[in-house]
Inverse folding.
């Protein structure tokens, strides 16, 4: 079946040759051929076969779309937009030109149009049509023109329902409460020259959070997200009926990010305590908060299951939950957090909307922050911010029809720490400004940013050994410290001396990091993690066997019984008494260690993927771009890599033009979350009916 209205300009003016409409057997054989060609995964092909088994009458179009949907899930999309697939398949399928040509031919001859596709899906007993069909456990769900895997439709719907309910639960503060808020906000934030610097968005974020159960605070590095969160905690403490009973938890997707959040919040609260005196018991609040945890630890991860101890029927006992690095939270985890949080508790999400999205499916923070740049505050919000915070919202950031979520979202726009050439480079990459990027990278050696394009992996190894002009040290600095292990008169170091040495080794290692776009090949983490220890041998690193002194390791699987979680980075060093090797981890100033024999899921961490680096910062970051990385090489990946650097950034690209290719490829993940949130209106859409159990 052909559609006269369907045009696919990607393939030129001549349509592909007509072929017979495939039957089921022919379609499955075609999918297998596509799998053999590397365009589909075995998992994608398997889902199409499962659908064929569940529905013997399923039409070829249903099987084709099942395989495509499964592959998109592997690329982080939560669903399949049928219109996008029909109109611009090259933006949906990360396939070579011959694969796109084959898909176009099969679509035109075996499907024909979006209408025909939705009709075929609606007729299949393996597909649940939201508008008409009851839930019979079908693996696929058709919601309008979006096709979902069952569990992602449930998760997306649950997140939308929880966000809508939290936005609708907006508290109208009485005049006296607004006046108290204004008094405390003026004390918590030093006066700002708004005429010159614009609105104090940090102050505005705290004011908005005071009246709602959800606040989303986004901004780039150095814009003060945790600074703002600390002042929000002080404001909530000042406004609480019983401050001593305020229950607060801090969390992040990874252990490293959680430790950094706790350290930043504690430092900010300590500074506030000194400035405010005894007006608030911020020291007591800091003690009651306790350690920040990973989201898995917070929810009570259970080994070998996706279920958590805390959920809607066993909620967390909290009044406030602050979650940092929210861009890393995938759809399923966000659904779990929202389900486990009591309806009366406040949720504060902190994150950079421009960073890489989660490794797993979903881009929840990006969806929630779609209007953050524009503001879109309605008249009621603008009036409230003026009264409660003295913040005058410029007309450019107002919108009479601003959606409800926008009234609970704030973008911090001024970076107080992340400046200089590194900051300018990150902004230029984020804006797709190739000319500025090239100007910054063309500066003489010794500057904060430098590029080596069209080089060999040996250039990366040289940087790993000794750094470069303007960024000295490399990994050689921590290797030198390995030989300085303390020893007492009897050959045994005191615990204090040993712990001080361990801290210095870990801190020296953390000053430099190699970040990769891919895992495989000489330019990926696998190749570099084999090559770097060999390159460090001449400096004294004795890299022999699986476990050796000085091996950096990254945990790859949560193990609550050991207290280690995916993303934690440590160093293999001897115990204080020598001999026994342990993996040591540093959380702020606190050390913890685990015997190496108990660590079953770790990998060497001289080089790590950019995804795994989120939530971390290094004095010198080396970003390694391979010759070919396909859709993995994106603008967000480069931006995230750059923003991991504090003092120096070095780009090493296997070929000239790799950076420009990445900048020209922004990531767009398919999601139906905004539609479910009712973003078209000025207030939340009617509450969704209770989500069916998955």
């Amino acid at each position: 079946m052909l559609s006269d209205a369907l045009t696919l300009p990607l393939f030129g003016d001549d349509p592909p040759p007509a072929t017979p409409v495939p039957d089921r057997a022919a379609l499955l054989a075609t999918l297998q051929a596509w799998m053999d060609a590397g365009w589909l995964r075995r998992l994608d092909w398997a889902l199409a076969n499962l659908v064929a088994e569940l529905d013997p009458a399923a039409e070829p179009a249903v099987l084709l779309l099942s395989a495509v949907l499964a592959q998109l899930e592997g690329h982080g999309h939560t669903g399949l937009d049928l219109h996008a697939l029909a109109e611009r398949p090259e933006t949906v399928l990360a396939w070579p030109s011959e694969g796109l040509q084959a898909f176009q031919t099969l679509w035109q001859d075996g499907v024909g149009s979006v209408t025909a596709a939705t009709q075929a899906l609606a007729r299949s007993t393996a597909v649940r049509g939201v508008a008409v069909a009851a839930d019979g456990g079908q693996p696929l769900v058709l919601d309008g023109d979006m096709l979902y895997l069952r569990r992602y439709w449930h998760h997306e719907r649950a997140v939308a329902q929880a966000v809508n309910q939290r936005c609708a639960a907006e508290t109208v503060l009485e005049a006296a409460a607004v006046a108290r808020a204004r008094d405390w906000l003026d004390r918590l934030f030093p006066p700002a020259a708004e005429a010159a610097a614009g609105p104090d968005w940090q102050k505005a974020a705290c004011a908005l959070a005071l009246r709602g159960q959800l606040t989303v605070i986004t901004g780039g590095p150095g814009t003060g997200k945790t600074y703002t969160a600390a002042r929000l905690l002080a404001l909530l403490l000042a406004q609480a009926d019983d401050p001593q009973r305020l229950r607060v938890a801090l969390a992040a997707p990874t252990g490293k990010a959680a430790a950094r959040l706790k350290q930043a919040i504690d430092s900010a609260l300590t500074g506030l305590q000194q400035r405010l005196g005894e007006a608030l018991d911020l020291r007591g609040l800091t003690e009651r908060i306790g350690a920040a945890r990973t989201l898995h630890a917070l929810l009570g991860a259970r080994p070998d299951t996706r279920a958590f101890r805390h959920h809607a029927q066993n909620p967390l006992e909290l009044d406030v939950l602050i979650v940092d690095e929210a861009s890393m939270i995938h759809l399923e985890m966000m659904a779990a957090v929202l389900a486990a949080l009591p309806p009366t508790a406040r949720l504060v999400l902190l994150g950079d909307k421009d960073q890489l999205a989660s490794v797993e499916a979903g881009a929840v923070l990006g969806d929630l922050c779609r209007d953050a740049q524009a503001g879109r505050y309605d008249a009621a919000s603008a009036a409230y911010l003026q009264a409660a915070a003295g913040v005058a919202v410029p007309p450019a950031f107002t919108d009479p029809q601003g959606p409800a979520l926008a009234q609970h979202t704030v973008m911090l726009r001024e970076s107080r720490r992340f400046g200089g050439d590194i900051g300018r480079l990150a902004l230029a990459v984020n804006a797709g400004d190739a000319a500025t990027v090239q100007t910054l990278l063309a500066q003489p050696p010794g500057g904060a940013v430098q590029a080596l394009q069209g080089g060999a992996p040996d250039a990366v190894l040289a940087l790993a050994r000794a750094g470069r002009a303007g960024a000295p040290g490399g990994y050689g600095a921590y290797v030198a410290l390995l030989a300085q292990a303390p020893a007492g008169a009897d050959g045994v170091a005191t615990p204090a001396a040993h712990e001080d040495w361990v801290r210095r080794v870990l801190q020296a290692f953390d000053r430099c990091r190699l970040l990769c776009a891919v895992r495989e090949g000489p330019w990926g983490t696998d190749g570099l993690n084999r090559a770097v220890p060999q390159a460090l041998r001449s400096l004294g690193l004795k890299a022999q066997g699986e476990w050796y002194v000085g091996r950096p390791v990254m945990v790859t699987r949560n193990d609550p019984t050991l207290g280690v979680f995916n993303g934690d980075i440590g160093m293999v060093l001897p115990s204080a008494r020598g001999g026994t090797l342990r993996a040591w981890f540093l959380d702020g100033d606190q050390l913890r260690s685990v015997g190496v024999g108990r660590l079953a899921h770790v990998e060497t961490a001289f080089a790590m993927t950019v995804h795994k680096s989120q939530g971390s910062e290094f004095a010198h970051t080396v970003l390694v771009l391979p010759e070919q990385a396909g859709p993995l090489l994106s603008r967000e990946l480069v931006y995230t890599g750059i923003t991991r650097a504090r003092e120096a950034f070095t780009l090493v690209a296997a070929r000239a033009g790799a950076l420009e290719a990445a900048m020209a490829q922004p990531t767009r993940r398919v999601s139906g979350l905004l539609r479910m949130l009712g973003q078209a209106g000025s207030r939340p859409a009617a509450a969704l009916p209770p989500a069916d159990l998955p």
